Amino acid sequence: MIRMHFRRVAVFSVLGVVIALVVGLLMPTVWEARAEILFGAEDSRRVVGATTDPVDQILQLGNQGTVETELQIIRSETTFANALQAAAEKLSDPALLRDYEDLYLMYDVKGQEMSRIAQVRVRAYSPESAAAIADEIGQVYNELRQQAIRRSVVQAQEYLDSQVRSAERDVREAEQRLERFKVDRGFTDFQTRSAEATRYEQELARLLDKARAEADGLRSAIARQRQKIAQTPATSLEASTETKSPVVTQIEQQIAEYQRQRVEALRFYREDSIKIKNLDTVLAEWEAKLLEARKREIVPTGRQTSPDPVRRQLELQLVGNEVQLTSLESQIAALEGELGRQRERQKALPKDEVELRRLTRELEILEAKYRRLKAQAEDLKDKTETIRVSAQVLGPARVLRRPVSPNYWKLGFIGLVCGICLGLLYTSAVEAMRLRVSTSRQLSELTGLPVSASVPKLPPRAEQVLTEAPNDPDAKPLESFRFLAFASTAKFESLPRVLLFTSAQGADATVPAVQFAIAVAQTGLRTLLVDADLRRASASERLLKDPRPGVSDLLGRSMLPTEESDVLLGTQHENLWFLPAGSETGGSLADYQTSLVTGFLDALKARADVVILDLPACDVLSDAARLAKLVDEVYLVVSARDTQYRQVPQAQEILAQSGARAISLILTDASPDDEPFSAAATI
Predict the structure, then answer these.
(1) Which candidate among 217, 336, 370, 371 keeps its CA 20 to 30 Å from the CA of 312?
(2) pLDDT tens by residue, 86-109
(3) How many CB atoms lie within 10 A of CB 291?
(4) Per-residue pLDDT tens for 310-326?
(5) pTM (2 decimals)?
(6) Are 37 and 117 in contact (CB under 8 A)?
């Protein structure tokens, strides 16, 4: 077999080399010319000096970028097409233009990140054409760069002109806002108005403090007078007399004092000022009191006993002081009100000052911006014609002495590699066509054994649903396994029965074991599904959320399930129990003594009518071979998709040599169109 594969690969290798050499003879001769270009340092930013960020961004569009960017420009189709046009005119060879696509595919530019030198490699069908195109590349690159710089400068100039107009408009609007604010507030000199308001507030505060001090003095005098009156007798022996009431005299004196204060105040305040109005209010109150007092101006005194003159004098003084205190309290209230209003007006002054300063600062900033933009625009207009070349060709193009194509050594190597690859693909495809068993009929003809059931090809999600069917009370087994359950139970000569499900390499026996267990349980027999695959424990992982004690725990601790044991787990289906692989996975049934395994099976048969064992592939692990002679029947599962053709007889031979009493086949991943009962399989 290996020699046949080697011969196929060798034949294809020779054919690949021959075809490559023939292709080389048919290819045209290609010459290569090389030229070196040095990137210049001139850019549009040096044209105008210092600029703003937006202007820099516009000018940057015309500047040289990174080395990789400039290499891409030189490598671009536009640069090559313009250079090819110029070379065709220079050589008077219009045929160059017809070969544009082929020549551009061979065109390349090499450069390094830290170097500003680019190596231009031009390939053509003649050395003269290659050299002419390479010489024109640098000239075309310079023209493209100069156009880009001029275009970016013009765009920057247009941008600056628009910004100058906008800044000039903003300055005019700021000036108008400042003038309107000054007119609305009614002042042009903020400091003068603030000083006047401060002096008036201080004067109000001084008058208020003076009135409060006088009121405090009167309260103290009233308290002393009341104390003296309480200590002085009310009457004294004296002749009856009539005298003028001293209250009238005192009120008249008080009125005279306030009139004097009013005349004095008129020297500093106007008639409509708060100070004058407050004095007028107080005078009116005292005049009303005078009218009331004159009604009792003559006080009669009679009898031998009369009020004590000292007490009387104290009472009169007390009344006068109380009247004066009432007047002062009214005056204090008026001053406090005026002072509060004045302070509210004072609080508004800082806000106006802040607004005035803000408007002034805004105007200054806009004027500075206008002057800066104006200077940049003027500078840009004066220096737009100082653009130099952007690249320098270091020398004339140099043509290589030998043509670069065809390269017979390279073509021969490529043909050899391609021939080897095609030979390997061919021999693999030939062998792959005979590797799989696709139908039950083919499987039966191959092994001479009956195919008892089949599982159609299903997506992964559907296979998971079939495996988890014991947890779903509404799940029904596949129709082919119902048939297998009815046919098998009809042949049972005695109970209990132990059935083993294993597989050939590439197949999985878990889904068939689960489906068959559900189908047998529905016949009324007590059925026990055992996950005996201690290494993968696939059935336990899919049916249980958490690890539970099971096969490995029973065998490892030499204990057998009893009536009181909770190792056997009930399912959602009547007559069906499940024994998991156990908490100690990763091992194998071949690790345990034969006496333990036999006793384990006997204990399981005591608990169920039918025991179904799910084991790993018989040609991967020896578990199935260990139990084959201890069970009543073995079901070998074969995958139409993953089991290779030669593995089926090998698995059958392993089970037969292990002493299996009866072997039946189950085909998975089968085509629904080729297998019985598959048309009714719905998930």
Answers:
(1) 217
(2) 888 888 888 888 888 888 888 898
(3) 9
(4) 777 878 888 888 888 88
(5) 0.43
(6) yes
Q: How far apart are CA 126 and CA 96, in angstroms?
A: 10
Coil, strand or helix at 281: helix
Neighbours of 654 (CB within 10 A): 20
Rounded Cα–Cα distance for residues 602 and 196 (Å): 117
Work out the pLDDT band at 564, boundaries 50, 70, 90.
very low
Output the pLDDT for position 628. 92
Residue 498 clears pLDDT 90, i.e. is over it: yes
Contact 242, 298 (CB under 8 A): yes
CB neighbour list of residue 624: distance below 8 Å, 6 or more residues apart: 500, 502, 615, 616, 617, 618, 634, 654, 655, 658
- Rounded Cα distance between 145 and 70, Å, is 10
Residue 505 has pLDDT above 80, yes or no: yes
**Phi, psi (degrees; rounded to nearest 5) at 518:** -65, -40
Give dist(CA 613, CA 579) in Å, integer: 10
Which residues, in sequence order, are CB contacts of 531 under 8 Å at separation 6+?
A: 537, 538, 539, 540, 550, 551, 578, 579, 580, 581, 614
Choose among 558, 452, 559: nearest CA to 513.
452
Pinpoint the alpha helices (H) of 383-447. 408-432, 440-447
Does residue 613 sit in helix, strand or coil?
Answer: strand
* Strand runs labelled E in 126-275: 235-237, 242-244
Highest mean pLDDT among 156-160, 413-417, 525-529, 550-554: 525-529
Q: Containing H/E element for 451?
A: strand 451-456
d(CA 635, CA 498): 11
What letter represents residue 252's amino acid? E
Pairing of the two strands 398-399 and 569-570: unpaired
Tokens of 402: 């030998």
Looking at residues 234-260, what average pLDDT do you find?
71
